[in-house]
């Protein structure tokens, strides 16, 4: 008697489970990776539109900003400008403009102040002597231009800008005041945007009893943590996807190695 051999039932017949393309674990890891990409992209966008690198052209802000070095500037978005701030501004906005383009100086007086030089060798604001620890102490500090006498009363909406290297700076002593509307950013660090060295705000003016602390940037530190968090999420998600797919492939190979009927 001839035995009839029947082929195994084809896959997909009723009663046989269909393999899932996306397991819950795989979906979770994909979501984590996408979330990481989104967080990272958002922070990179904020950095791109909020911060810029400025190449320091000369020695007027030495030693705070080294000639030829880079400064990190945060765009001003309506924030108040205070004494002690190192700011970027439109140089063409000086009352007696001598050039145009972006420049960087320190704010030493704001609207309503009376700024003068020099009492006992010190700058005074509203009669209060300012101990300017940020000033250059090289040979130019003793130059006659460093102690050019002046007495200026500022109107509201004006700022008086000076270089930290007073002996080599063409600033408000010679070119007049600048409208605060011409200030476009705050210098918050030096070096590259990817690895900045924070610029500590001076306390020279608040120590003298004048109100208004300089701008203190906390956003960039927070952004760096968000960037790190986004990167961690992305790599965790990618790793999870890879591990999940490898495990699924292993289970399929083991299932395929089992003889039919076992």
What is the total tally of β strands? 12
**CATH-defined fold name of one domain:** Umud Fragment, subunit A
| Proper CATH architecture of one domain | Ribbon
Number of helices: 4
Describe the fold and architecture.
It is a single chain. This protein has 262 residues and is an alpha+beta fold. The protein has 4 helices and 12 strands, in the order H-E-E-E-E-E-E-E-E-E-H-E-E-E-H-H. It has a domain at 51-223: Ribbon (Umud Fragment, subunit A). 28% of the residues lie in helices and 23% in strands. Strand 6 (122-125) and strand 7 (128-130) form a beta hairpin. The radius of gyration is 32 Å and the shape is elongated. The mean pLDDT is 82.
Key features of this structure:
single chain; 262 residues; alpha+beta; Umud Fragment, subunit A; 8-stranded antiparallel sheet; 4-stranded antiparallel sheet; 12 strands; 28% helix; elongated
Q: How are the secondary structure elements laid out?
A:
Elements: H1 24-50, E1 51-55, E2 70-75, E3 86-90, E4 102-110, E5 114-119, E6 122-125, E7 128-130, E8 150-153, E9 158-162, H2 172-175, E10 178-179, E11 183-191, E12 196-198, H3 204-207, H4 219-257
Antiparallel strand pairs: 1-2, 2-11, 3-4, 3-11, 4-9, 5-6, 5-8, 6-7, 9-10, 11-12
């Amino acid at each position: 008697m001839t035995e009839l051999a029947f082929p195994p039932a084809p896959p997909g017949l009723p009663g046989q489970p269909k393999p899932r393309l996306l397991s819950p674990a795989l979906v979770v890891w994909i979501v984590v990776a996408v979330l990481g990409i989104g967080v990272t992209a958002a922070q990179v966008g904020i950095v791109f539109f909020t911060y810029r690198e400025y190449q320091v052209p000369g020695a007027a802000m030495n030693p705070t900003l080294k000639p030829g070095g880079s400064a990190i500037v945060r765009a001003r978005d309506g924030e108040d400008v205070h004494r002690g701030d190192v700011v970027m501004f439109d140089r063409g906005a000086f009352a007696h403009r001598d050039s145009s383009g972006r420049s960087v100086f320190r704010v030493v007086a704001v609207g309503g102040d009376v700024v003068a030089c020099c009492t006992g060798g010190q700058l005074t604001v509203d009669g209060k002597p300012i101990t300017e620890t940020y000033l250059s102490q090289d040979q130019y500090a003793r130059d006659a231009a460093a102690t050019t006498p002046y007495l200026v009363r500022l109107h509201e909406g004006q700022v008086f800008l000076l270089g930290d290297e007073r002996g080599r700076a063409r600033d408000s002593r010679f070119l007049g005041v600048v409208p605060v509307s011409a200030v476009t950013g705050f210098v918050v660090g030096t070096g590259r945007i990817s690895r900045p060295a924070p610029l500590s705000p001076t306390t020279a003016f608040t120590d003298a009893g004048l109100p208004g602390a300089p701008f203190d940037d906390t956003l960039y530190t927070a952004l760096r943590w968000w960037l790190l968090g986004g990167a961690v999420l992305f790599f965790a998600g990618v790793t999870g996807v890879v591990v999940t797919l490898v495990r699924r492939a292993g289970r399929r190979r083991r299932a395929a190695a089992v003889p039919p009927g076992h």
